[in-house]
Design a protein that fits this description.
The complex is a heterodimer of chains A (about 100) and B (about 425).
Chain A: H1 2-14, H2 29-41, H3 56-68, H4 75-80, H5 85-95
Chain B: H1 2-5, H2 15-29, H3 32-39, E1 42-46, H4 50-62, E2 67-71, E3 77-78, H5 83-87, E4 97-98, H6 101-105, E5 109-111, E6 115-119, E7 124-127, E8 132-134, E9 137-140, E10 144-146, H7 158-161, H8 170-180, E11 187-192, H9 202-217, E12 222-227, H10 235-246, E13 250-253, E14 261-265, E15 270-273, E16 277-279, E17 282-286, E18 289-291, H11 293-297, E19 307-308, E20 322-324, E21 329-330, H12 338-356, E22 365-373, E23 379-387, E24 394-395, E25 401-402, H13 409-430
Parallel strand pairs in B: 1-2, 1-9, 2-5, 9-20, 11-12, 11-17, 12-13, 19-21
Antiparallel strand pairs in B: 3-4, 6-7, 7-8, 10-18, 14-15, 15-16, 22-23, 23-24, 23-25
Classes of the chains: A mainly alpha (about 100), B alpha/beta (about 425).
Bound molecules: flavin-adenine dinucleotide.
The site of flavin-adenine dinucleotide (FAD) has 36 residues of chain B, from helix 4, helix 5, helix 12 and strand 22.
Chain lengths: ~100, ~425
């Protein structure tokens, strides 16, 4: 209980504070899949493209656009082609902001 | 899958909150016995590079109550990615250097010692400081060792005249200084060992950036790559960039053209190939490699010199309760890259936490992109997507590949900026 309280109290700082306090990670397929993303797009810092504040729906649309653009040559195009609709939806809902 | 969906928390606005709550959700689902087991778990990581540092951090986030010890012999980590820019005088070594303070602040015990033995029966690691660490699960991330003598004549002494610069640090500076001191119109030789080796496109990125340096400072100089392979990563893109930017300065000799170096003579500054020999003013040898020694001492290395693993869990297929990540593994088609090591670390940490929580490791999909600079601003890249099903990595069909051959200068420069941003992001995730 005390642990939970301490964690809850620390949450407001999580977004902006870089390496100081890291949120616990989950153990599920969403966490496994998004392990591929955070090396370039970790929350709260400089990244190739920051995902901070991006809506899940927007992220999903972007990933699908990368995957479905047969002429696209960027690294994201080449990687997105390896993911199914379900995987893209799971990644987007994990990394994107949920609509309120 | 049904089991797992119960672990997911209700929707909330911030993803950090989501991750936090889902971990708490898991905690409440576990039986008291399992919780106690994960809380008291002793986890040891050997090697604090891109793989090990990331793994230690991920473990503390996954299992906040477990004890996590990172064993790393050096007080500072000097990163290889981007060290070719240092060789070419385009980047300061300080930008390559990282400490372990942030990891300590997060509750990781960082032991600056060399791991000298692993007793897999007693589950303990011996350190050269004299202490012994007991573990429930051990993650080995020792990177590579150079196979001294595997190339005849290439000894630690020879490397003082013919640097490898394949482990960043003094060797990187030595190669840089030798290039700066090279006589006008001199010859640089780069010898490349047979695959597999750390960073498949690395020797060719180095050739590009060294040629760029020579073009600016020593324009009549020549660079010959003596290669034990018949082809290389991003070959067509590299060779087009070489023609475009460096004219005829770079000559590549593949194995079929007797490019394979079989003996190094450091006193004569000469490399012998199957047929011939070449003298160089500066000689860079990318030598034969194998998994870091501690992996061998742990019994986790097979006849190839590398560590066979179950790709789903990163568990050694040779010894129990030991996982291996990064350059030390046999993970083909995943390359030996910092990108791969960082990502394997996170996936491995999750699988270790699952095992400690009584859940089976779960197959997933991983990806890799390696950028290489062809000029100080422009880069090309190679990507792959890999499934970790059935304990083996396989290429996901239809995905991956290299940058387009006909891309604009703007596209190449954008990839150059992406490379720099990748370095910032990945070093932050591992060390800062
Ligand atoms: C010139 C060059 C350019 C590169 N460019 C790129 C690039 O652009 N992108 C990319 O993704 N990759 C690149 N790489 C590859 C990258 O450097 C490696 O793939 C990466 O470092 C592998 O990480 P690792 O954690 O497996 O090993 P390492 O980073 O080597 O870390 C291993 C650590 O373990 C420690 N250690 C070993 N044994 C022990 C022991 N017994 N006890 C205690 N500590 C021990 C070592 O001191 C070391 O710090 C490049 C490599 C080179 C040489």
């Amino acid at each position: 209980m005390r642990y939970r309280l301490a964690l809850a109290l620390s949450l407001p700082w999580l977004a902006g504070c870089g390496g100081l306090v890291q949120a616990p990670m989950a153990l599920d397929q969403a966490a496994l899949l998004t392990a591929s993303c955070s090396g370039c797009h970790a929350a709260g810092g400089r990244a190739i493209v920051s995902l901070d504040g991006m809506a899940a729906s927007e992220l999903e649309a972007k990933l699908l656009a990368y995957r479905n653009d047969a002429d696209g040559g960027s690294a994201m195009h080449r990687m997105a082609r390896g993911y199914s609709d379900e995987q893209i939806a799971l990644i987007a809902s994990t990394l994107g902001e949920r609509a309120e | 899958m049904k089991e797992l969906s119960k672990l997911t928390s209700p929707p909330v606005s911030r993803r950090q909150l989501l991750a936090a709550l889902s971990a708490l959700g898991l905690g409440t689902l576990l039986s008291p016995a399992l919780r106690a087991q994960t809380a008291s778990a002793r986890l040891v990581v050997v090697g604090g590079g891109f793989g090990g540092a990331t793994a230690a951090r991920a473990l503390t986030r996954l299992l906040p109550e477990a004890s996590v010890t990172l064993v790393e012999v050096s007080r500072e980590y000097i990163a290889c990615p981007f060290s070719n820019l240092v060789v070419a005088g385009l980047r300061d070594m300080s930008a390559q250097t990282f400490q372990y303070r942030a990891l300590r602040r997060e509750g990781i015990t960082v032991a600056h010692a060399r791991a000298t033995a692993v007793d897999t029966a007693k589950r303990s690691v011996s350190l050269d400081s004299g202490s012994k660490l007991s573990y429930d699960r051990l993650i080995l991330a020792p990177g590579i060792d150079l196979r001294w003598g595997a190339l005849e004549g290439y000894t630690p002494r020879a490397a003082e005249r013919m640097p490898h610069a394949w482990k960043a640090g003094l060797q990187t500076m030595l190669l840089k200084e030798q290039l700066e001191g090279m006589p006008e119109g001199g010859t640089v030789l780069i010898s490349v060992t047979a695959a597999p080796f750390r960073c498949p496109p690395g020797p060719y990125e180095r050739a590009s950036l060294v040629a760029g340096y020579l073009k600016r400072r020593n324009p009549r100089a020549k660079l010959i790559i003596l290669d034990s392979n018949d082809g290389f990563s991003k070959q067509a893109l590299f060779q087009a960039a070489w023609r475009q930017h460096y004219g005829t300065m770079i000559e590549w000799r593949g194995a079929a053209d007797f490019g394979r170096v079989i003996r190094a003579d450091a006193n004569a500054m000469r490399l012998h190939t199957d047929f011939d020999s070449e003298v160089g003013d500066v000689i860079n040898v990318v030598p034969p490699q194998q998994a870091g020694k501690i992996a061998r001492l742990a019994g986790a290395v097979d006849a190839t010199g590398w560590c066979p693993i179950d790709a789903t869990s990163f568990a050694s297929t040779l010894v129990p309760n030991v996982h291996v990540i990064g350059d030390a593994t046999i993970a083909a088609p995943m390359p030996k890259s910092a990108f791969s090591a960082n990502q394997q670390a996170k996936v491995c940490a999750i699988q270790v936490a699952r095992l400690l929580s009584g859940l089976a490791p779960e197959p997933t999909t991983l990806a890799n992109t390696c950028y290489s600079y062809t000029t100080p601003e422009s880069a090309i890249s190679v990507s792959g997507v890999y499934a970790s099903t059935n304990g083996q990595f396989s290429n996901v069909p239809g995905a991956g590949g290299v940058s387009p051959a006909d891309a604009s200068l703007e596209f190449r420069r954008r990839e150059g900026r992406q490379a720099a941003d990748w370095f910032t992001a990945v070093t932050r995730e591992a060390f800062l």
